Amino acid sequence: MMETSGIPSLTETEEEVIHLLVEVGLKINEARLLVVFFRGLEPTSRELERITDLRQPEVSIGITCLSKRQWVGVSSLITAKKGRPVKVFSLVKPVDNILDEIRDSIVTGYDQQVILLQRIREIIRK
After folding, report:
1. Which of 24, 56, 18 shows the shortest CA–CA distance to 37?
2. Which end of the chain is more exposed for a tag (fewer CB within 10 A), N or C?
3. What's the half-sphere exposure (Cβ side, CA atoms, 13 Å) at 87?
4. pTM for this one?
5. Within 10 A of 2 (CB to CB), how many other CB atoms are there?
6. Quick one: which of 17, 93, 123 has its CA closest to 115?
7. pLDDT digits (tens, 9 = 90+) for 65-93
8. How do residues 20-50 score in pLDDT, each as one tens digit?
């Protein structure tokens, strides 16, 4: 396991969780980022790049998607250095709530597909 900035890279267990999140419908980059947040960390964009092995644009797009779902929030960390404040990201919902939302979207999608199949059956039988 490689360490960067004192924060370890993704573990085998986390890679398995990423794979499972992708299997249930998340995009790979969103899943990689989400798993980092499941650690309870409040990383910067740069730390997310290092931990997940994603490029800056991939991190930015993933964070935007997670923010739109209202799973991740951003705050500014003012440093002693001059210049821009550093953005720090964190989960704004508990992990269980996020997993429940994913489950609910799967169930809703499944129910809608079953309704479509029933409609096809009705049309064909006419």
Report:
1. 18
2. C
3. 10
4. 0.82
5. 9
6. 123
7. 999 999 999 998 777 677 777 889 999 99
8. 999 999 999 999 999 999 999 899 999 999 9
Strand pairing report for 86-91 and 72-77: antiparallel
Tokens of 112: 């809608």
Spatial neighbors of 33 by CB under 8 A, at least 6 apart, are 48, 52, 54, 59, 62, 63, 66, 72
Report whether 51 contacts 9 (CB < 8 A): yes
> What is the DSSP pairing of strand 3-4 with strand 72-77?
unpaired
Instruction: For residue 86, give the 3-state DSSP assignment.
Output: strand
User: Which residues does 34 contact at the CB level (< 8 Å), separation at least 6?
Assistant: 21, 26, 66, 71, 98
